[in-house]
Amino acid sequence: MDVRLRAFGEAGGEEVDLPHGTEIVTRVDKLVGERRLAHGTIGRVTKMEGDAVDVTIVGVGVVRYRRSELAARRVGQMSFARRRHAAWGALSPCIVLESAVGSRAWGLSHEGSDHDRRGVFALPFSWCSGLVAPPEDLVSADGSATYWSASKCIAQALRADPNTLETLFVPSAQAIDPIGEWLLAERDAFVSIEIYGTFGRYALAQLRRLEQGARLHEHRSLVLTWARDEPSLTLDVAADRLADRTPRLFPSRDEAVNQAKQWLKQLYRSLADQGLVGASDWASLVAFAKGGANDLDLPRELRPKNAYNLLRLLWTATEWLRSGEPTFEVSGAFRDRLWQIKRGEVALVEVLEEAERMMPALDAARDASPLRKRPELSRVNALHRRIAEEIARRHVERDPGSWGKDAPTPPDAEWAE
Hints:
With 417 residues, this protein is of the alpha+beta class. It folds into 3 domains: 5-73, SH3 type barrels; 83-191 and 375-410, no CATH class; 192-374, no CATH class. Helices cover 46% and strands 14% of the residues. It is built from 13 helices and 14 strands. A hairpin with a 2-residue loop joins β3 (30-32) and β4. α6 crosses α9 (282-290) and α6 packs antiparallel against α10. The longest helix has 35 residues, at 195-229. It is globular, with a radius of gyration of 24 Å.
């Protein structure tokens, strides 16, 4: 018998916040100017303020609905939203450390910049001792705040995860509980030369992926035109044509064609994710093109914000490896350059070339770095044990607070129907 445990009981859907990015289906007709949007229209949540939800609809733009007028398009998304909503409500009092991160920590914010927060929470003992696996993340509905369990934070920091190390080391990092103070006191035990790979090489790899996305965006209208005018066009033939148009050199013709094919697959997968095509395959893309896809104002997939952030990661890694001390706030000419990239004033291919020019400095900083080769595992292990023992102590002794007598009630284990 196939059974599984359900972490949280079922709740009504309408009182649950829909996380940003959730794909929804509208429940009502709506008039936007002179255009009527029929119920059943598909969109994505971009903002939620109380009962008001802003939904981005392809070819229309942002339309505001009431929460009761929307439903998650997929059952799994609603289940995820319920779990996230329940975990946030129950475990928010268990946060032990919080930091202001993102553009405001990097010296790249403006008046309208988001206030992004990350941090750490500690699970009460009773949440770790039952059949139900406890949540390891708390995420606000608008996505601006993310907290990891202490165990997950430690595991990520051991891997030199950039987001985790930033959370622990930015000047705004603030302990809300002694457990948070312990994390800050031992944070240097996580730092090693491994940030070379997780910050630097990761950033370069992601920039190359962004370049692939840029090519996909650049050629999207062209591909849809081909598919509209030639219904018999195959994926292989389209990839062969597209390979002739890529400006970057590949070691062989076969590799160029294979890369072009990957771009085309990304295109129809993206359209499927947006609910614009019936299935994630080439035939559905061709049918979409024949149905007038070229008349649609398709959403722009390029995000200069991602490009400037990855270039910033390269700089951060180089400076940290060189000096042995973390610096997150940029200044001077480099700050001005990042602003240009963030505003979309620099072509993505130019950003990639600039990143590649930064690699020799990153390599040299690694070779001469004063940082240790690996994290201090014994210190980290001792920290992990200390936190676990403290949580158990507060539970057993019924201390006041969120880990003792005032601990949130853990979810019951139930068979999923």
